[in-house]
């Protein structure tokens, strides 16, 4: 089993995501037949044939490239919750969100992405966020930076926005799943920002904050397929992120919230002004 990720290996996985999107996702976009969209845990938690088909293609491609690796896909873990616990003991694991932003995809909205992260003995070492419509991939390698990679191999470096006071920040704050009274508190304080958006898609939220188009992200639920790749992308683009309690992010920790900001000082200001009573 290979435990090393270089730029050539990173490009190979970007190509895998591109192939999966072209084969399983884009042919179904705005062409979903009756019965191909299903609810899992509630009306905001959907799965489609595109999710399941893309996950099968991605999982098979990763297993072929890295024999013996553990692949934990969102849909696979929904069918077998014990799969998620295996991350704790795996030497090399991949977490896969085949279609992040499924609600957007099912509604025909062009904001969804494919996310994969490589986890080496509990540490996130590489991440990929592919945009099927733009046909490019945001890539991060631990200690080597973050960039957008086009199909022809051209790479554009990513860099977070310059630090700014809260009243000049643009953010995507996912307050829907926050527990009360935090939910009401954060929602009522959105006017403290220069502007707030709700993309309903962590893939594009992380791409936007890593590229300097947003300053701030806030999440409550931290399933690793939703956040491991994006967290590393943001970090390698120069950002600072931590849980609501200030603890570092870990893909083995699935709660406790996460705030992503340009630097530590702006993280503290955001936490103070948005979360504290």
Automatic annotation (TrEMBL):
Its cofactor is Mg(2+). Keywords: Magnesium, Metal-binding. InterPro entries: Inositol_monophosphatase-like (IPR000760). The keyword Metal-binding applies. Belongs to the inositol monophosphatase superfamily. One of its GO terms (biological process) is signal transduction. It comes from uncultured Acetobacteraceae bacterium. One of its GO terms (molecular function) is metal ion binding. This is Putative inositol monophosphatase. The keyword Signal does not apply. Mg(2+) binds at residues 74, 97, 100, 226.
């Amino acid at each position: 089993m290979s435990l090393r990720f270089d730029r050539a290996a990173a490009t190979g996985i970007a190509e895998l995501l591109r192939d999966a999107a072209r084969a399983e996702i884009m042919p179904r976009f705005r062409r979903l037949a009756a019965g191909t969209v299903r609810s899992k845990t509630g009306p905001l938690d959907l799965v489609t044939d595109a999710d399941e088909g893309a996950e099968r293609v991605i999982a098979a491609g990763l297993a072929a490239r890295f024999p013996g690796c553990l692949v934990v896909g969102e849909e696979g873990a929904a069918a077998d919750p014990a799969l998620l616990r295996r991350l704790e003991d795996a030497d090399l694991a991949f977490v896969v969100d085949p279609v992040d932003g499924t609600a957007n995809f099912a509604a025909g909205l062009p904001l969804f992405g494919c996310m994969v992260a490589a986890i080496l003995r509990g540490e996130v070492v590489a991440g990929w966020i592919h945009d099927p419509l733009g046909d490019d991939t945001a890539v991060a390698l631990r200690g080597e930076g973050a960039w957008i990679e086009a199909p022809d191999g051209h790479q554009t470096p990513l860099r977070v926005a310059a630090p700014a006071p809260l009243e000049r920040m643009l953010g995507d704050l996912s307050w829907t799943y926050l527990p009360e009274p935090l939910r009401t508190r954060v929602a009522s304080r959105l006017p403290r920002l220069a502007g707030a958006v709700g993309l309903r898609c962590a893939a594009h939220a992380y791409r936007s904050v890593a590229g300097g188009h947003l300053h701030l992200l806030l999440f409550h639920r931290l399933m690793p397929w939703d956040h491991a790749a994006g967290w590393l992308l943001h970090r390698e683009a120069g950002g600072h992120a931590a849980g609501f309690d200030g603890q570092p992010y870990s893909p083995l920790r699935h709660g406790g919230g996460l705030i992503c900001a340009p630097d530590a000082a702006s993280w503290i200001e955001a936490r103070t002004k948005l979360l504290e009573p």
